[in-house]
Amino acid sequence: MLQQMRNHAKWIWIVIVVAFVGGFLLYQTSGLSGRAAITTSTAVGKVNGTEISYIQWQNTTAQLVQQQEQQLGRGLTLDERAQLETRAFDDLVSDVLLKQEYDKRAIRVTDDEIISAARNSPPPQFVQAPELQTDGQFDPSKYQRFLSSPTARQQGLLAQLETFYRNELPKQKLYVEIAGDIFVPDTRLWLVWKDGHDSAVVSAVNFTPQVTKEVKDAVTDAEMRAYYDAHPKEFDRPGRATLSIVAISRRPTAADSAVALKQIQAIRAEIAKGAKFEDVAKRESEDTVSGKDGGKLQKSVKGTFAKEFEDAAYKLKPGELSGPVISPYGYHIIRVDEHKGDSISMRHILKFIKQGDSAATKTDKEADALSKAAASATEAAKFDDAAKKLGLLVSVLKIEESAPAMYLGRVVPSASAWAFGGAKVGESSDMFDDEQAYYLVRLDSLSQGGQRAFDSVKEELRTIVGHQKALDALMPKAKAFSAAAASSTLEAAAKAQSLKVVSVGPFSRSMQVPELGMLSEAVGAPFGPSLPIGAVSAPIKTDAGVYVIRVDKRIFSDTAKWMAQKPTQRENLTRALRDQRVRIFLESMKKGAKIDDRRKQLLTAQRRATT
């Protein structure tokens, strides 16, 4: 079997080489190369001295982009691509660190292990493939037949499986070494069960801190510095930018919606008269992914598609044709081919609701005029002059790095990635667009992210430390109140001091309880042995306030129910704890590594070299 994998490996490499050469030529001819010396071997980063090359990063990004575009059925915005570029770099860093760890631990994989894994442990994408399922469940016999089929050999899938397991099996061995010894005893299972199923009802009095001017003024620089040094991550912030934006609307009108409805009705009538659904879908559907395949959608279960679409589809019998169905994407005609259990196979034809030709032509001309006047301009005034000439409203947006730019409640595609991708203050973007509008933005200000200097966050620190001091100042009052309540009743003590007693619960110790400071010490206290029913607690200090409580009722877990589900609970908790340990190990490995990320400097220099 392994030899078959290798016999077909050349086809995989041919595809990779073609993609590499094509991508590199596109890079060279697109103007990205400019005057900066970025080559295929340029390092975008180093991990403990091991370089990550520019071409590795670009190829990994290209694979992720292709997958995402296939899933979405459209091209990606710059924002979406930037997210995938970051994910690609993080994946490459992890790969380097893992390979270094394999070498350190002498972890190896044999050919026999690869063959056994390929036969008996299929990758997730095979397990989820509808073609390899029976009644919605993975069918091992179908998988074995598929591995032996000419299709698997001809398409080079066996070579891909070998590559997959050469990457995955060392990872699995490492994970076993790291977390294979984890076992969850009954005592812990019972405590976890009790955390979620024991419940309590309490009466509580809350002392809320008041951070007055006097409290803030009493905070010293030494106290603020101590907090700042102890909590550095709290003062990290992403890059920030200010954009000016103008938009030209592309929103369709009610008349445009009526046109789309008329089109879809005509299509349905054609099919109802005998036209083949698949042929009409190829000709008419505006779903570019399924349309070329006769409208065929991937076999799915409920919850995969838009609710309006699925509600209509699940009412149809196999072979039945729906009427016009409107969803957020437009109007559809649906035909169900097969419906077994929770899974359904269907085809559809989609017509978008979009501007009519005359309105679209007018909008496009206006967008062209704006683009010619100000797109990619380096002089800030050109943006303002173009907006004034075309009568467009200029708005101001405040944005943060790695978050999309929002305008009138919707995302402005690509604007954020452009602003933080090497643009200079005063520069205007290219034209961006989506189904709602054309957009042009100008970068008005830009500040890099990172830990803010102590002097720049002193007022914020003054409030934080003041809050802590205000909490401490409440403790004597709360202690006196607790003593008075213990000698009489919680209600009597509260009445004497004009305080309010609130009833809270039932709640478990693992719940977030707003009346007790969310997931706080006050939520856990009613379940401890030191606070019997009817007793008044000592003051309980939380971030939200100081609480004095009385446990009014406790409801204990059902042992029989726990015993019935214990095997499943042990399996789930063991898996979660193993995943947690592996995650902590990987985070620790990354934190301890020397990682030099050069992407931002490289791309900024590259962009500036081409302008």
Give a short synopsis of this structure.
This protein has 611 residues and is an alpha+beta fold. The protein contains 24 helices and 21 strands. Helix content is 51%, strand content 18%.
Describe this structure in words.
- With about 600 residues, this protein is an alpha+beta fold.
- Helix 3 crosses helix 4, helix 10 (about 185-195) crosses helix 23 (about 560-590) and helix 12 packs across helix 20.
- It has 4 domains: about 1-165 and about 595-610, no CATH class; about 200-235 and about 455-555, Roll (Chitinase A, domain 3), CATH 3.10.50; about 240-250 and about 355-450, Chitinase A, domain 3; about 255-350, Chitinase A, domain 3, CATH 3.10.50.40.
- Residues about 1-35 have low confidence and may be disordered.
- The two termini are about 55 Å apart.
- It is globular and about 85 Å long.
- It contains 24 helices and 21 strands.
- The relative contact order is 0.13.
- The protein has a 4-stranded antiparallel sheet with strand order 18-5-20-19, with helices on both faces.
What attributes does this structure have?
18% strand, four-stranded antiparallel beta sheet, Chitinase A, domain 3, disordered N terminus
